[in-house]
Design goal:
Length: 351
């Protein structure tokens, strides 16, 4: 009984993309030294803990006197930096024995490091980390996109209201059930001065993330929608109804990552994914694959098990009509998305 009560007292483990997490630069602490510290994101997440599924593309022991492991977990929008040391022994052992690349699911605490130069560096300290797979990662991306869109809508409504202080608090209380999100939105509006620029960037990252996982799994169709919307992209994405309520985002995730991973895609979820796949530019003609996707195909063909040379990929790309500079940029983007990695300098391997 005590264990259950302790779990119930834990902070929410939010689903956040790396792009939004790394964009965040507001850090608050409530109460004494033992009180939780929070990262406030541009969509109002008051984040002490977060839940991630992605690809570990790099693991390194950076400790001198003791083992301190640093890892990079990539999702389609960017990379989380993970640290595990003597206070996270199970996670440290897991990372030390891991064969990169690997899909993992992680619940961890958000951490901030702010050196004297004024820069803010964010990382995650694992509480629990387990092996995952591609389907579970894709499901996490879709779910996280839905949750992020819900928060963006709340943020946009709050900004459009023009309210502040107590009036904004009362406005949000009518729209949002989660007190932590209400508080976070108020903090974010006060701190982030360029939300008119930040929010469109977040929307673009969501579209990119969803297209990445649905196209990889073969769900995206090339048939254009019957009716082209006036504004492409995020309009269609925003129309998707979440498969779970916002209240479920508030349930404790300590018990258990396993529950999250075993959730299946029912018919409703698949239908929503089909709606996502209608993301098209107005009057868009069937287009050629992006250079990045051509590069991904080249790596896939050249890597027969032991990797392929960086120069070989560039040379093949040039034969396909892609300039070297564009090819290098595409490779970097694929690495950031966790779709390929560099086990040693000059060698590329597909994930």
């Amino acid at each position: 009984m005590e264990k259950i009560e302790k779990i119930m007292d834990r902070e929410i483990a939010w689903r956040i993309f790396a792009h939004e997490f790394n964009t965040s630069n507001l850090h608050i602490s409530e109460g004494d030294e033992r009180a939780p510290n929070y990262i406030i994101t541009p969509t109002g997440v008051k984040c002490n803990r977060l839940f991630i599924i992605g690809v570990i593309t790099e693991v390194e022991n950076i400790g001198k006197d003791n083992n301190l492991w640093r890892a990079r977990i990539a999702d389609p929008t960017g990379v989380f930096t993970i640290y595990a040391g003597q206070y996270q022994p199970e996670a440290a052992i897991f990372l030390s024995e891991l064969e990169v690349p690997a899909y993992v699911a992680l619940v961890g605490k958000a951490r901030k490091y702010e050196p004297e130069d004024g820069n803010v560096y964010l990382s995650v300290r694992p509480e629990e980390i387990n092996a995952a797979d591609e389907k579970q990662r894709d499901m996490w991306v879709i779910e996280t996109a839905e949750r992020t869109l819900e928060r963006i809508k709340i943020m946009e409504d709050a900004l459009d209201s023009g309210l502040s202080g107590t009036q904004l608090q009362e406005f949000l209380e009518k729209k949002v059930k989660n007190p932590a999100l209400i508080n976070g939105v108020a903090h974010a509006i006060k701190h982030y001065k360029h939300l008119d620029r930040i929010i469109p960037e977040l929307k673009n990252s969501l579209v990119h993330a969803v297209k990445t996982v649905t196209s990889d799994s073969g769900i995206i169709h090339n048939n254009p929608p019957e009716k082209t919307p006036e504004k492409p992209g995020i309009q269609e994405l925003s129309s998707i109804k979440s498969t779970k309520s916002m209240a479920q985002e508030q349930k404790p995730d300590e018990a258990d990552i396993t529950e999250e991973l075993e959730e299946g895609k029912d018919a409703k979820e698949l239908k929503e994914i089909e709606e996502i796949n209608k993301l098209k530019e107005p009057n868009e003609e069937p287009s050629k694959p992006e250079p990045k996707e051509i590069i991904a195909d080249i790596i896939d063909r050249l890597d027969i098990g032991k990797g392929t040379s960086f120069s070989g990929v560039i040379e093949t790309a040039q034969k396909a009509g892609i300039e070297a500079e564009i090819a290098e940029s595409a490779i970097k983007e694929l690495m950031d998305e966790g779709r390929c990695y560099e086990p040693k300098i000059g060698t590329l391997r597909k994930v």
